[in-house]
Amino acid sequence: MAAGGLSQHTLKSLIRRIHASNVVILLDTCKSGRFSETFGTRGFVRKKALSRFGQTTGTYMVAATTSQQLALESAGLGHGVFTHAVLEALEGKGDLDHDGEVTVRGLVTFVEKEVARITLEKFDVEQFPVTNGNGRNFPLSVTR
Question: What is 8-134's CATH superfamily?
Fold first, then answer.
């Protein structure tokens, strides 16, 4: 692995080698929405999902920011705002229908709202996560 990070080409190559039926990629980096844009708009997500039994699988990429934003961090949270929101979602706040499971769409919905709320409150600017995905909604964690 590169000491300073991965190129888009390398990251896409690594993702293509994932053989799981359901995939969630979380990127907590500045301007990560740029990767999300190429990930979805060039059909990458759709091709991966279709190559794995059509709509019976799910592939989602969630980026911390748009292609122009910085990924904000707060010392009080111990890490990035995006990571904080993801952890809170997985611990149960992403269980939006209260059925005991956090699904990928529940995580995305909670993270989008929470990141914008926290960054507006703490930094007086909203950070907007970007999501591209295709396929079925699937559970990520159990809350009961």
Answer: Caspase-like (3.30.70.1470)
